[in-house]
């Protein structure tokens, strides 16, 4: 896994370098203490994950990410910042980051997040190939650019939830792609005629999806333990799972109760469709 660090604090660069290179599967292919150098390097290097500071001089971390995306350089982004208000976090996630870390860096948290994002990255190519295969089974009616933008947004949300490595994620992408293309609600899908699901296949697919969503619910609840007031987490909790279910999952993690949150496939898919068209 190739990493790049953009930060004007040499101590942070040293700390992250040691942390990343403790895993022999990782390599740091570059560091920069200014955004322009980072931008120039990213155009010529293959970078899987970029750790970028929000508060660099001249160009903010968010502006750097937006500039890189405009140039079609799109590694996974982890943003670091000593500013942790809700407005900054929201802007960062809307720019397309995968996770937001507060400074000063917490070693245990950072190590966990790096491993998590690395896992997402390893699955991305495989999922893209799968999507191309299964997506071709149904006709597309939306302009490809619009459909692709919505699906990219959906994949970003699934990465955020930490479920791209789950088997059910492939089924989620297949179903939501159909909903995006034909502007269908979950209850409007004719699984038998369009996706060729008989009763047995439908049951198995839904079981896989529920298992994947249970992982996502648990991951979201874990993030709530650390960032209970985060606006992005609140939005996903309400739109994808229902806040009550996330709250119950948090209470289970705290040991307050034995039962966690419940999964509603219709609530999740309809919420995911809505998230894909929200202007970010």
Automatic annotation (TrEMBL):
<feature type="domain" description="Response regulatory">
    <location>
        <begin position="2"/>
        <end position="118"/>
    </location>
</feature>
<keyword id="KW-0597">Phosphoprotein</keyword>
<feature type="modified residue" description="4-aspartylphosphate">
    <location>
        <position position="53"/>
    </location>
</feature>
<dbReference type="GO" id="GO:0000160">
    <property type="term" value="P:phosphorelay signal transduction system"/>
</dbReference>
<dbReference type="Pfam" id="PF00072">
    <property type="entry name" value="Response_reg"/>
</dbReference>
<dbReference type="InterPro" id="IPR013972">
    <property type="entry name" value="YcbB"/>
</dbReference>
<dbReference type="InterPro" id="IPR001789">
    <property type="entry name" value="Sig_transdc_resp-reg_receiver"/>
</dbReference>
<protein>
    <submittedName>
        <fullName>Chemotaxis protein CheY</fullName>
    </submittedName>
</protein>
<dbReference type="InterPro" id="IPR052048">
    <property type="entry name" value="ST_Response_Regulator"/>
</dbReference>
<dbReference type="InterPro" id="IPR011006">
    <property type="entry name" value="CheY-like_superfamily"/>
</dbReference>
<dbReference type="Pfam" id="PF08664">
    <property type="entry name" value="YcbB"/>
</dbReference>
